[in-house]
């Protein structure tokens, strides 16, 4: 799936947001295979998108009421 020096895997990780976060690194440390780490990356991205949507929904309505 990846080359022997894992360079393609490392390039893929650079595109996943949140890998600099210690919480994400700790979460990924609990996985044992490369496949699970890729899955964790995808779930981490989905989680960040969900949190962004929740933040927008929490901030925008009060701003509209104040207008």
TrEMBL record:
Enumerate the UniProt keywords alphabetically.
Answer: Membrane, Transmembrane, Transmembrane helix
Transmembrane feature ranges: 47-65
Q: Does the keyword Membrane apply?
A: yes
Q: What is this protein called?
A: Transmembrane protein
């Amino acid at each position: 799936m990846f080359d022997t020096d894992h360079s393609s895997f490392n390039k893929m990780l650079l595109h996943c947001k949140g890998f600099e976060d210690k919480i994400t690194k700790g979460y990924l440390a609990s996985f044992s295979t490369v496949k699970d780490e890729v899955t964790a990356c995808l779930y981490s991205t989905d989680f960040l998108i969900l949190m962004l949507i929740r933040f927008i929904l929490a901030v925008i309505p009060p701003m509209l009421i104040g207008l």
